[in-house]
Design brief:
Blueprint lengths: L1 H16 L12 E2 L2 H7 L3 E4 L2 E14 L5 E8 L5 H6 L2 E5 L3 E3 L2 E3 L2 E8 L2 E5 L5 E5 L2 E2 L10 E4 L5 E6 L2 E7 L2
Antiparallel strand pairs: 1-3, 2-3, 3-4, 4-5, 5-8, 6-7, 6-14, 8-9, 9-10, 11-14, 12-13, 13-14
Length: about 170
């Protein structure tokens, strides 16, 4: 019996000597809560030589498998010229490569808008990077100014501006 007692005491001593590790942090994928969005979204952003305040209440975010995050937020573009204001409605931040309409979007910061002829994505200088057709969702009961909603396929999310949307997914 004595060797068993010595072995148990030795195991306990080793266990106590090891550094304590808390539970691993795992993040759920999908649309993030308003509190998470508020914690992650910057209060103001840079675009086309100026800064604009982000409307945190009209911001949204998604977390992809593997912890990639994409944020979008409506901006107060009052200080911009009318030509920029018409096109620059929201700010898009992504720390992972995503796809919209089959077109790749590299990690980075972008200005965007939903225009009469589709979804527009611009670099920080205001230069057009891509333009995609948008779909309308007449079944959306209470559209918010900007929101992410899980799409019909796993890993697909819809970025809505009102009832108009474009589908996004994690790039492979």
């Amino acid at each position: 019996m004595r060797p068993v007692r010595v072995l148990v005491m030795l195991c306990c001593a080793i266990a106590l000597a090891l550094p304590a590790q808390g539970p691993s942090t795992t993040h759920t994928t999908g649309v993030l809560t308003a509190a998470e969005v508020e914690r992650l979204m910057p209060p103001s952003v840079f675009f086309s030589g100026q800064t604009a305040t982000v409307q945190i209440r009209n911001s949204a975010a998604i977390r992809f498998a593997g912890d990639g995050i994409t944020l979008a937020g409506m901006v107060d573009s009052g200080g911009y010229s009318s030509g920029v204001r018409d096109r620059y409605q929201f700010y898009l931040l992504t720390d992972t490569a995503i796809e919209a309409g089959g077109r790749g979007i590299a990690p980075g910061a972008y200005g965007g808008g939903f225009l009469s002829d589709g979804f527009l994505l611009m670099d920080l200088g205001g230069h057009e990077l891509l333009r995609l057709p948008v779909a309308a969702d007449p079944s959306m009961k209470r559209p918010r100014p900007l929101q992410f909603v899980a799409g019909p396929q796993a890993g697909e999310y819809r970025l809505y501006l009102g009832r108009a949307y474009v589908s996004l997914k994690h790039a492979k």
